[in-house]
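It would be a great kindness if you could assist me with a short task in structural biology. A protein sequence and the C-alpha cells that stand for its backbone fold form the material at issue. I should value your view on which stretches of the chain appear to form regular backbone elements. The record follows directly beneath this note.
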Amino acid sequence: MKDLPKILVILGPNASGKSDLAVNLALEKNGEIVSADSRQVYKGLDIGSGKITPKEMKGVPHHLLDVVSPHKVFTASDYSHLARKAIDDILSRGKLPIICGGTGFYIDALICGNYFSPVPPQPEIRAELEKLSTEEMAEKLAELDPDRFASIDKKNRTRLLRALEIVVSTGKPVPKLKKKARYNAEKIGILWPMEKLDKRIEIRLDKRLNPEKGKGMIDEVADLKFPENGKGLSWKRLYDLGLEYRYISLYLKGELNYKEMRQQLLTAIKQYARRQMTWFKKDKDIKWIKK
C-alpha cells in the first residue's frame, strides 16, 4: 500500500458536512477535490444534488462536476475512468487528491481495480429490460441471481439494469470480481447521531425547496423538464434520477400535492442516508469523526 499513490477520501451520508471539511483540508494540505457523487456529474443537477457552489469552493479546484448531459446514463465504470484521470493530473502537479462524496459504490470502484464485469454492453437486451419498472427489475434479479439481489441497492435502476444485462446475456450469475487496491487511501467519515442528521436533512431540504433568494429545487426540476431552449428530460428520466428529481417531478405532474411531495421526499432522503451508512460501516478502514 505504501508504494501506491496517496489520496484522501472524505465520505459520509447526505447533509453530514463533507464538502466543507474537504475544502478546509484542501486549503490546509494543498489539495484538489474530486467529487464522488452519482448525480453531481450531471449538468443542471445543482440544487437537488447538493452541488457545491463557486463561493463554497473557496478557490479550491473541483473535478468530476458537470461532466455529462443528464440525458445520458453515467455508470460507476465511467466515473472510475474519469476520476483516475483527474487524480493522475492532480498528482502530476504535486497536489493531494481529495475524494469527496457519499456514493460508496463510486468510491469503492475508484479505489479498487478489477471491479467491473468484463461483459460488454448488450444494447438489444438492455432495450428490452428498460421496459421494466425498477420494481420489476428487482423481482427479476431476485429470481435469476439471488446472491447479487441480496447485495444490490434495490432502488438503483442503473445497477439493477447492469446486473440483469450480465445475467441475461451470459445465463450465469454476476461474477464476484476480486478487488485490488489502486491507491493508498486514507478514509475519513463524518458520523452524526441519526436524530441530529435527520434534523439537518430536514432543514436543508426546506431551504432548497423555499430559498430566501433565487431559484429553488422545484424551479430547477421544472427547468430540466421544460427548458427554454433544447429538449427537456422525460418524466421517466427525472424519475430515474431519484430523490429530489423523482418526487418533485411527481409534484409537477400533479400526482402529489406539495405537502405529500415534501413528506415523501424527506422520508426518502432519510432512508437513503441510512443506506449510505450501512454501506460505509462495512469498511473497517474508515476513521470516523463523531459529531
Remarks:
- The longest strand covers residues 184-191.
